[in-house]
Design a protein that fits this description.
This protein has 305 residues and is an alpha/beta fold. The chain is built from eight helices and ten strands. The strands form three sheets. The protein has a six-stranded mixed β-sheet with strand order 4-1-5-10-6-9, sandwiched between helices. Strand 2 and strand 3 form a beta hairpin.
């Protein structure tokens, strides 16, 4: 994810962070068969560990909408749950710079409608990566009975804007929402991280009711993603915890449902790029996302029963 409106990808300055620890969270992981800009893949090896670029282009998703995936299983463990998945950025944002540079209200300030996102040094776009991973995760979650909605499916000219992405989750009354990204940090910085909403109560933003459940979702997602992908938390975010809290992201500030951002890997690092451009690794990333969401939703259901 890149925070610069339409400029070439660049790294972002460090944010203030709160110490949180992924390792301390015991999470039941359900592994399934099978940026703005924020995040990085991992130090670990695993399938495609740094060598997956050979199948990147052949397996890259088409720029048109995917064929519909199967309807939710009515008897699955996630039956009755609504999940919103948000593929970061849009492949055609670069063709609509005036539109995506338009400022929108995010409660405690104003931000660009959207950004172009980042890309690998070889030119594999973040927006292409995120859409492919989200489509894979949608299929896995639907197989467990969840109703899954996307903020876009490669079917829009640009965007949607960050405020609309949040509103899609709100209108769906989502039980969980995950925005998928990949980072554009300096080469040598590796590892995934999850961004959770800070407490914001300003203008039309009020995250006070969702900060705790979003933190729960984030910690479960981080644990499941690490296990499914055999990667480690980011080396350059919050002391290697893999968890970060921010109050400057419109997609989180304006959400009224539990929501997090997942930065799957650093596209500007050669080794991470090898993972992100591997179709097999993207499937593992989708499994990690689906498992983390399922762990959060099933635990949530158990606590409420």
């Amino acid at each position: 994810m890149s925070n610069s409106p339409a400029a070439p990808p660049s790294s972002r300055p460090p944010r203030s962070r709160r110490p949180l620890t992924v390792a301390a969270v015991a999470v039941p992981v359900l592994l399934l068969a099978g940026g703005i800009g924020y995040g990085v893949a991992g130090r670990g090896g695993g399938d495609g560990g740094g060598t997956g670029g050979d199948d990147a282009k052949a397996a890259a998703p088409a720029r048109t909408s995917a064929a519909p995936s199967p309807s939710p299983s009515p008897r699955g463990p996630l039956s009755g749950k609504v999940v919103v998945l948000d593929p970061g950025h849009n492949l055609d944002n670069r063709l609509h710079t005036a539109d995506i540079n338009r400022q929108v209200d995010v409660g405690n300030g104003r931000k660009e409608c959207d950004t172009t996102g980042t890309e690998t040094n070889a030119g594999y776009p973040e927006a292409e990566f995120t859409l492919d991973v989200v489509r894979r995760a949608r299929k896995l979650l639907r197989a467990q009975g969840a109703e899954v909605r996307l903020t876009h499916d490669g079917d829009r000219e640009f965007g949607p804007c960050v405020d609309e992405r949040a509103e899609i989750g709100n209108e769906a009354k989502a039980d969980a929402a995950v925005s998928v990204h990949a980072d554009g940090a300096p080469a040598g910085a590796r590892g995934f991280h999850v961004i959770m909403p800070g407490a914001v109560h300003a203008g039309k933003a009020d995250t006070r009711a969702i900060t705790a459940p979003s933190h729960d979702l984030g910690t479960r997602l981080a644990a499941s993603f690490a296990k499914a992908t055999d990667t480690s938390p980011a080396t350059y975010i919050n002391g290697g915890t893999g968890l970060d809290t921010r109050s400057d992201l419109g997609g989180l500030n304006l959400s009224r449902v539990p929501k997090v951002f997942l930065e799957c890997g650093n596209m500007r690092d050669t080794r991470d790029a090898g993972l992100l451009t591997s179709a097999r690794w993207r499937e593992r990333a989708a499994r990690g996302i689906a498992a983390g969401v399922a762990a959060y939703l099933t635990e949530d259901a158990g606590e409420k029963s």
